[in-house]
Write a structure and sequence with these properties.
With 124 residues, the protein is mainly β. It is 0% helix and 51% strand. Strands 2, 4, 5, 6, 9, 10 and 11 form a seven-stranded mixed β-sheet that branches. It has a four-stranded antiparallel β-sheet with strand order 1-3-8-7, with no helix packed on it.
């Protein structure tokens, strides 16, 4: 069983930055395709960014392109999301997910494991 633990969330003013981390443990296969999703109050969970198991391929939601950067450090078993130029509409609970497979996945139901989430609040 894979365990995912997010950290790094918090409160920030618009235009600020945060870096989220997702620590990965457990499981028999060290490498998974990984992704970040977010959920604002009263809304569905939505895709933010994903990286393939090799780390070479990345995809981003249009709303975060040019502002967010996903990366993974497999030596540290950690996934990151660097978030710059934050906007109030980026507010929500951010979740990391792990998916079996070698592709890059932007679909919620393609992920097999989820963390508990970390709150990000961006004030205007």
């Amino acid at each position: 069983q894979v365990q995912l633990v997010e950290s790094g969330g918090g409160w920030v003013q618009a235009g600020g930055s945060l870096r989220l981390s997702c620590a990965v443990s457990g499981g028999t296969d060290r490498r998974y395709a990984m992704g970040w999703f977010r959920q604002a109050a009263g809304k569905d969970r939505e895709f933010v960014s994903a990286v393939g198991w090799s780390g070479a391929s990345h995809i981003y939601a249009n709303s975060v392109k040019g502002r967010f950067t996903i990366s993974r450090d497999d030596a540290e078993n950690t996934l990151y999301l660097q978030m710059n130029s934050l906007k109030p509409e980026d507010t929500g609970v951010y979740y990391c997910g792990a998916a079996h497979g070698v592709a890059v996945y932007d679909g919620l139901y393609e992920y097999d494991f989820w963390g508990q989430g970390t709150q990000v609040t961006v004030s205007s």
